[in-house]
Amino acid sequence: xxxxxxxxxxxxxxxxxxxxxxxxxxxxxxxxxxxxxxxxxxxxxxxxxxxxxxxxxxxxxxxxxxxxxxxxxxxxxxxxxxxxxxxxxxxxxxxxxxxxxxxxxxxxxxxxxxxxxxxxxxxxxxxxxxxxxxxxxxxxxxxxxxxxxxxxxxxxxxxxxxxxxxxxxxxxxxxxxxxxxxxxxxxxxxxxxxxxxxxxxxxxxxxxxxxxxxxxxxxxxxxxxxxxxxxxxxxxxxxxxxxxxxxxxxxxxxxxxxxxxxxxxxxxxxxxxxxxxxxxxxxxxxxxxxxxxxxxxxxxxxxxxxxxxxxxxxxxxxxxxxxxxxxxxxxxxxxxxxxxxxxxxxxxxxxxxxxxxxxxxxxxxxxxxxxxxxxxxxxxxxxxxxxx
Length: 388
Hints:
Keywords: Heme, Iron, Metal-binding, Monooxygenase, Oxidoreductase
Helix content: 40-55%
């Protein structure tokens, strides 16, 4: 078995993981990544296949479950009810209920809201000074959209951002006790807020996603209040975080390439070229042959989404950003039964937000070289300084 040694905290890797991916893909494509203690798949074909293989899943096998530490009880009380961490039949039930409320019609109806949010944010850009586009635009667009979708007051934005950031940090390399304590506090506060808000919506239904999820529960489905909380937290954390990173990475790429218009094809290319999530792990539930390696029950495997998008066997000259690239499905949203439930909304947000930004600010320029944040397996810019 060929072993890779590459710390996800190494500054050079954080700024450019793609060079490492290229070497690993050419060597493997399935190798043992010692820093994570598991096999990792770097090529598109293997990642694509394993995402859809029902012999693997996200749910921790019973024999590997460990007691939850006291200082993380609130965090895992939320995680326990997240459909991302379950397999059928529980996953099927939760996802079906979410999709019943999270309809294509509801998503399409948000376009006007997204356009309004973008216009308001752009109008507040400073006209005579450098500013950081990440907090000024990329962060604000998705959190305001999620607030409107859920029916939560938009002035809750700072709290939603704080809670989401603290909880998502649990999935980054190098987490410590401080991060864990912050995540548990955020989970407790967010759950308390959502519980009271859900109770209010039971007595005062509105045209929002929370009301729709409550209605689904009351139609005889087994969606408890705790499951409602877990679902709303997942929609915020996964939907908001991924879109923030996608927008930042996309703006950076577009500022260095000539693109006549922000078409759906351009959105797909930026997601392939520099996606927000680079690793998605799964457990083997039975023996699975992966190339010349074998996964045994209980083994974890890392599916390298960021590497799959740069596979030259699928994408010619993959290191080149090509807005005219022939549309070829990418894996930035995952695949199989865990394909991102918010993908249609993310695509709409990116289409509208990028078009609004470059239509209103055609001379937007970077004023310093941006740096990626030390937050692997997320790949995001920590700052994007620009000038109009």
